[in-house]
Amino acid sequence: MEYSPPPLFKQGPSALARLVFFVVLALALLISDARFKTLEIVRGVLGAGLYPLQRAALVPRDVFMGAADLAVTSATLRSENDKLRTKDLQLSQQANTAAELAAENTHLRALLQLSQRSTTQSLPAEIQYDTRDPFTQKVVIGRGAQQGVQDGSPVVNEDGVIGQVTRVFPLQAEVTLLTDKDQAVPVQIVRTGLRSVIYGTPKGDTLDLRFVPISADVQTGDELVTSGLDGVYPPGLPVAKVVRVDKQADTAFARVICLPVAPVRGARQLLVLHYLNNVPPRPAEEPDAATTAKDAKAKKGSKPADNKAAADKSAAKPAEKPAAATAKPAEKPSAKATGAAAEKKATTEKKPAADKNAKPQATPGAQP
């Protein structure tokens, strides 16, 4: 008895044959898509058709995230608006005060007939890359001599001093950062007006305010700005803030550690300043009147002494000749006397020898 269904209910090939067919078809599609990208169009059509369904499924999530973002954004905007209003009021007051001081400064300079001390021009630049030397704090900016960058120009950003241009190329320039161990900036303390020089450190993370006496009024939190006395940096640029003051009794100067105000390593956009200082150059050092008079007196006093020494020398030369001439005759008798003494000695030595020889001759003659 056969257990297979009757011919009326047979529906195509067997299950095994269909499994083999679909497996082979799947492998062929995978290989062709991986090798020849044959299903890219089909995939794009299916993605475009299913996109509305995906967006509809993500609507609840988007609604929830949007409501949360709206609440957070609203609170953030309110706080930022309050801060901006407060800062706007402060800046408006400072602007009014600055305008009043500028007008007063202009009036006083005109009254005293003083010219403007300096003018500052700025050139925007962007850092391109760091230098290859890991022991220096230097960066390279995308502005050079063709854009007007000059060697020694200060570099700043919106917060304060960043560094100084130390090498200029036609299209690029090298900037030594403020924290470099070889960089120095003349500064002064805003609170007291004390002037000094701030240096970088080998680590490159702090600044060292040197040549500050122990008795100087320096406190933690004091702000340092450029003094402008060097003619390189414009006066009043923020530089650093004091974070620690160490005063020891066995040293003449205090150790003052500072941190830069501007993000020296985090800045990307910079301003290169072209500082035009109208102050006349430093006068050449001239000798004092007292020193000049003293030198003149010394010269006058030395001339008679020199003349006197020359006269003494010339007088001494003729005197030496007679002495030498007098000494020559004295030497001759001494030589003759020496010869006579030698002859006398020789004669004395010969006489005993002759007497000795004569004695034996005298004895035989005496016996008869």
Helix and strand layout, with pairings?
Layout: H1 15-36, H2 40-112, E1 118-130, E2 138-141, E3 154-156, E4 161-168, E5 173-177, E6 184-189, E7 195-200, E8 207-213, E9 223-226, E10 238-246, E11 253-260, E12 269-277, H3 289-366
Antiparallel strand pairs: 1-2, 1-12, 2-5, 3-4, 3-12, 4-5, 6-7, 6-9, 7-8, 8-11, 9-10, 10-11
Q: Assign the CATH topology of the largest domain.
A: Thrombin, subunit H
CATH class of the largest domain: Mainly Beta
Element-by-element helix/strand order: HHEEEEEEEEEEEEH
Q: Sum up the overall morphology in one term.
A: elongated
| Major β-sheet profile | 6 strands, antiparallel, barrel
Terminus-to-terminus distance: 208 Å
Major beta sheet, strand line-up: 1-2-5-4-3-12
* Total domain units: 2
Query: Could you list the spans in which at least 5 consecutive residues all have pLDDT below 50?
Result: 315-368
What share of the residues lie within helices? 40-55%
Radius of gyration: 54 Å
Mean pLDDT: 79
Protein name: Cell shape-determining protein MreC
Domain Rod shape-determining protein MreC beta-barrel core: 130-273
Transmembrane segments: 12-31
Biased composition (Basic and acidic residues): 294-320, 342-358
Name its key features.
368 residues; Thrombin, subunit H; 2 domains; 6-stranded antiparallel β-barrel; 3 helices; elongated; disordered C terminus
Task: Give a written overview of the molecule.
The chain has 368 residues and is of the alpha+beta class. The chain has two domains: 15-114, no CATH class; 117-277, Rod shape-determining protein MreC, domain 1 (Thrombin, subunit H, Beta Barrel). The chain has helices spanning 15-36, 40-112, 289-366; strands at residues 118-130, 138-141, 154-156, 161-168, 173-177, 184-189, 195-200, 207-213, 223-226, 238-246, 253-260, 269-277. The longest helix has 78 residues, at 289-366. The protein is elongated.
